[in-house]
Design brief:
Length: about 325
């Protein structure tokens, strides 16, 4: 059990970062969290938590001081609604965070550096069909990533590779495919599909108005990976010798309509889908986990139904608490 290592987790006030802090604390690490904000839904268990804007060089240097290993999760990000509408801002903020973090890690001789990339790096021209061929790591070039968010992730992957080759910074790179779970953003515009749909279903259940708005025809496909699998895989990759980008996700593809039906079933209601215009991202996306299985001798274990059941339960609690009601709420007081 590693007890003497000092670890930095940036984005520790966010969804995955907060879960990762808990995971590494349980494993016995000394953890410093850094973020613009504290975790929203639970106290952090980090040994130190610094409120820092990591777009600035001096703050990245402060975060990396006396650190053995860094997990770089801080990013300006959100679901499709957010990343399709804030291209310049996302590029500007995330390029600054990642360029300064890599340089600070090099300056302070951080032993290992982990970058969280995304399935958004994969070319849009390979994702035009709902019945998409699962994406292998090598499919990333020729490049045509999704949105400015995907371009920035791909650019930072290149930076990590060159910092390793030119300066010997020992980098690891993961490409997440739709991570979901409790203690994540569930309202406000940055939430992703599983959280947004869980919120809509909870509101439908509590108001008795069972109509749910879905962006587009709902036939777009994705795979979804539960947070406990995400942090476990992430940690395994950090311990491995594998330095190239690696997919981390489930390889079971579902449509957004199917996802809605599963969540409605968990809530114990039938919902009527109302299809409305809205950003949908690529038409289909799935993870090819061949390399993941080979490199880590492991793959995500938790089923979509099991993960959604925990996530939905938590979001229903948040909706009830927000509206301060135990059983039902007035539809007129609730945002869609
Ligand atoms: P999140 O938004 O919950 O967490 C990101 C955190 O970064 C937030 O707490 C935010 O405050 C912080 N941050 C933003 N700008 C900052 C700044 N200037 N200085 C310091 N902190 C700043 O997102 P998440 O889902 O936990 O994602 C974590 C990482 O994983 C991100 O890099 C994200 O791009 C990547 N990722 C996530 C998913 C997913 O499905 N959740 C998919 C692909 C990639």
């Amino acid at each position: 059990m590693p007890t003497n290592k000092r670890v930095l987790i940036t984005g520790a006030g966010g969804f995955i970062g907060h879960h990762l802090v808990k995971h590494l604390k349980n494993l016995g690490y000394w953890v410093r969290g850094a973020d613009l904000k504290y975790p929203e839904f639970e106290e952090t268990t980090a040994d130190e938590f610094e409120i820092l804007d990591l777009r600035y060089r001096e703050n990245c240097l402060k975060a990396c001081l006396d650190i053995d290993e860094a997990y770089s999760l801080a990013a300006d990000m959100g679901g499709m609604g957010y990343i399709s509408a804030h291209h310049a801002e996302i590029l500007h903020n995330n390029i600054l965070i990642n360029a300064h973090m890599l340089e600070a890690a090099r300056t302070h001789s951080v032993g290992r550096y982990f970058f969280t990339s995304s399935a958004c790096v994969y070319p849009e021209f390979k994702q035009t069909d709902t019945n998409v061929t699962p994406l292998k790591e090598e499919d990333v070039y020729p490049a045509q990533p999704q949105d400015a968010y995907g371009w920035e992730k791909l650019f930072t992957e290149r930076m990590c590779i060159h910092y390793r080759e030119d300066y010997g910074l020992d980098t690891r790179i993961v490409r997440f495919h739709n991570i979901f779970g409790p203690l994540g953003t569930w309202e406000g515009g940055r939430e992703k599909a599983p959280a947004a749909i869980s919120r809509k279903v909870a509101v439908a259940k509590l108001t008795g108005n069972h109509e749910i708005e879905i962006w587009g025809d709902g036939e777009q496909t994705r795979s979804f990976c539960y947070i406990d699998d995400c942090v476990e895989g992430l940690y395994k990759l950090m311990q491995s010798d594998f330095v190239e980008p690696l997919n981390l996700g489930q390889d079971r593809m579902v449509t957004i309509n199917e996802l809605t039906d599963i969540i409605s079933g968990i809530a114990g209601i039938e919902t009527a889908r109302k299809h409305v215009p809205g950003p949908q991202g690529v038409r289909g996306r799935n993870s090819d986990n061949t390399l993941l299985r080979q490199v880590l001798n492991w793959e995500p274990q938790i089923s979509l139904e099991e993960g959604l059941s925990i996530t939905y339960g938590w979001i229903e609690e948040q909706v009830r608490a927000k509206y301060n009601l135990s059983d039902s709420i007035n539809p007129d007081t609730v945002e869609g």
